[in-house]
Amino acid sequence: MSTHADRLAALRTQLAAQQLDGFVVPLTDEHLSEYVGDYAQRLGWLTGFQGSAGNAVVLPEQAAIFTDGRYTLQVREQVDAAHWRYVAVPQTSLTDWLGQHAPDGGRIGYDPWLHSRAWVDEARKALAERGAELVAVDVNPIDAIWRDRPVPSAATLAVQPDAVAGKSAAEKRGDIAEWLSERRADAVVLTALDSIAWAFNVRGADVPRTPVALACAILHADATADLFVAPKKLTDAVRQHLGNAVRVHDRTAFAGALGQFAGKRVAADPGGAVAAIFDALEAGGAKVIGVRDPALLAKAIKNDVEIAGHRAAQVRDGAAMVRFLRWIEGEAPKGGQTELSAAAKLEEFRKATGALKDLSFDSISGAGAHGAIPHYHVTEESNAPIEPGLFLIDSGGQYVDGTTDITRVVPVGPPTDEMRNRFTRVLKGMIAISRVVFPEGTVGGQIDVLARQPLWEIGLDYPHGTGHGVGAFLSVHEGPQRIAAPNYPGGGPTEPLRAGMFLSNEPGYYKAGEYGIRIENLILVEQRRIDGAEQPMLGFETLTFVPIERDLIEPDLLTADEREWLNAYHAETLRRIAPELGADDRAWLEAKCAPL
Question: Which domain of life is it from (predicted)?
Answer without folding.
Answer: Bacteria
